[in-house]
Design goal:
about 10% strand; elongated; Arc Repressor Mutant, subunit A; about 120 residues; mainly alpha; single chain; 3-stranded antiparallel β-sheet; 6 helices; about 60% helix
Length: about 120
């Protein structure tokens, strides 16, 4: 017997309607899932963490992570497509930073959550 199944076949229609009304649109849920998937990669998460502290170029990020510039660029492309980071060009150098404070808060809340368990 599966404990997850409801044994009672009565549904509270008001609660069901309220739950449906509070559901986010599918496109929003999908985009958030893609964001979490991107942040699920440890190297991309480290990149975002460093960019939460300061603006950095690919060379600096690669040196700090011990990764190739190509691998960092690929990760940054994924993060830029999801609008988690943005770039600015200064002369021949492109600098990256977090796109907005929502990402910084998401990261801070996530680390606070897991550090409580460590």
């Amino acid at each position: 017997m599966n404990d997850d199944l409801c044994e009672v076949k009565v549904t509270d229609l008001a609660k069901v309607r309220r739950a449906q009304e509070e559901m986010k649109p599918a496109e929003v849920v999908i985009l958030l899932a893609e964001t979490f998937r991107a942040l699920g990669d440890p190297n991309r998460l480290r990149l975002v963490g460093m960019l939460a502290a300061q603006e950095l170029c690919v060379c600096d990020l690669a040196a700090a992570l011990g990764m190739s510039q190509s691998a960092v660029s690929h990760s940054l492309r994924v993060l830029r497509q999801l609008r988690l980071v943005r770039s600015r060009k200064a002369s021949k150098t492109i600098y990256y930073r977090l796109d907005d404070q929502h990402i910084e808060r998401l990261l801070a809340d996530g680390f606070e959550h897991v550090e409580e368990r460590v």
